[in-house]
Amino acid sequence: MRVFPFLVLWVAVELLLLIASGRFLGVWPTFAAILLTGAVGLQLAKHQGVAIFRRIREELQSGRIPGDALLEGFLVFVGGVFLILPGFLSDLAGIALLIPPLRRKAARLIRDRFLRRLLNRPFFFMYRR
Question: CB count, 10 Å around CB of 45?
Fold first, then answer.
């Protein structure tokens, strides 16, 4: 439930930025900027997604498990979704996830947090007949 307040704050900031942009630039330039970032973002996400897919295929063909590549592929997908959503804050987050060094850093943070949470919990196995 900690996510809900963050989402409400995110939407509020997005709306404030869109209103401010509409007042500063005008309605039509703001609308055009939203459409332009969405279109450019989709093309960038498609290009990055194809590159990630190629990397996953190469790792599988060489007998390695493509863990990092799969996580980066998921982050490219999330970045593409952020770019489709209207708003400047979501566009900024989407672009950040499509820049390879930033995406790798985010993937490393997610992986490390997941492993830390996994290793700090007691593990038990329950077997029933």
Answer: 23
